Amino acid sequence: MDIQTWTYTLVGITFAIYIGIAIWSRASTTSEFYVAGSKVHPLANGLATAADWMSAASFISMAGLISFQGRDGSVYLMGWTGGYVLLALLLAPYLRKFGKFTVPDFVGDRYYSQTARMVAVVCAIFVSFTYVAGQMRGVGIVFSRFLEVEITTGVIIGMGIVFFYAVLGGMKGITYTQVAQYCVLIFAYLVPAIFISIIMTGNPIPQLGFGSELIDEPGTYLLDKLDGLNESLGFSAYTDGNKGMIDMLFITAALMVGTAGLPHVIVRFFTVPKVRDARRSAGYALFFIAILYTTAPAVAAFARTNMIQSLSEKPYSEAPDWFKNWESTGLIVFEDKNGDGLIQYLQDPNKNELSIDRDIMVLANPEIANLPNWVIGLVAAGGLAAALSTAAGLLLVISTSIAHDLLKKTIMTDISEKGELRAARIAAGCAVVVAGYFGINPPGFVAEVVAFAFGLAAASFFPAIIMGIFSKRMNKEGAISGMITGIIFTASYIVYFKFINPTSNTVDHWLFGISPEGIGTLGMLLNFVVAFTVCKFTKEPPEEIVELVENIRTPN
């Protein structure tokens, strides 16, 4: 079968599985819709958490960024992996013991303020929509190449699938769908990596193949070969970096604390029966996440090596099929600047004739390496699984923030459970439409957009949650002031450099040399400073809040 037939077959089978699971696990109560009735087994929750957390950014874009940035791309590996450890150790058990459905619910009750709850609702919606934009872009990219439809059409199809199982099943349906999606995405990620590792290095373990000698060039290691290829084209060595130390540190920290502040990941720990189960599911999830994250650097190196070797100085008329296939999507653009008919891929922007979207590298990797068509179709199904799993979790955060925190807790406190469930489903439906718009008109690469979401979460939620758990003195005035300061500063910085004045988005114009991807760390520090300063000059929290903090920090 050809690539398109394999893709339709595998994507169709996986979509049928997702829809079948959603129908089987349809939520009938608000508890099932919000937190799956808190009855999910830790192992299943670990699988679902891994799928929820490993978005299109992890599957599609992360290895693509590493393949272009080399050592600089390691910030995504260190930040996202370290952030999950931070979440598992510092936040998950305490939030599970607190027993609330959502992060705004925690903020509202811990800071004894409807204003604090409203600020948290706005932050949750803002962060979630920023994050979901990257997921829907990933869906569109997969559909545009492998199913040969417009990106807009692909996003709309993805919207329909997510709408069905997120609105129908709620957290209960999403959880068990994500278990299936993890199995699909990890299989789809590992199979081509193993194939290519064997072909290039003879080692079936990609993590070891990454540091092995090449079969075609005995005595030459993969990374040495890649360094030489990069330098011959005018790029810096693959194992060298261009980012400043401060920016590297701030991006890594923003991704770490942003992970710990992401509401769609935090809510997963409310789905298990006990606090102990929250810790166990966090451990399972870390193991499942590590499988993909330790493979990503190898995938990046394999893809870039094969790409350069298959294109460098090749006549455009003899370009390989994979190049023409992706060129038809508009994600690869060739401009013959000197009219010699050769494909020039160079560091010099005046001579470089290729524009390659970084998000295609993982998806194109099997084609570049001439793997069987079924492997290419499998990667397409895996990319969709990664994007849809995270999109569903984010849409649920948006719907619960509106239905539970805004309506039930603030505006319509006497709303019935049936009415609240209906409102949650309507909110999820509306959120799908808005998410689709951002997927069609994204503000950047998948991983870049997701990095912005992590920065916003770092600047707004993380300090409020940490101080809410570990500071008995922190009051509502401090927390509200800190959250508002953090998210306004961070969002303004990102908007200015990415939209208002993108031509000045260079290290010479950045504040302290910090890029928009890393500014969330500075926003977080401002949040802490403002919160503690305001706290010192305002009234202490009530005695019952102090006792509440003591209780959630004390083991059962």
Write a structural description:
- With about 550 residues, the chain is an all-alpha fold.
- It has a single domain, classed as Sodium/glucose cotransporter.
- The protein has 22 helices and two strands.
- The chain has helices at about 5-25, 30-35, 40-55, 55-70, 75-100, 105-110, 115-145, 150-200, 205-210, 220-230, 245-260, 265, 275-295, 295-310, 320-325, 360-370, 375-410, 415-440, 445-470, 475-500, 520-535, 545-550, and strands spanning about 330-335, 355.
- The chain has a two-stranded antiparallel ribbon.
- Helix 7 runs antiparallel to helix 17 and helix 8 (about 150-200) packs across helix 18.
- It is globular and about 75 Å long.
- The N and C termini lie far apart (about 60 Å).
- The relative contact order is 0.18.
- The mean pLDDT is about 80.
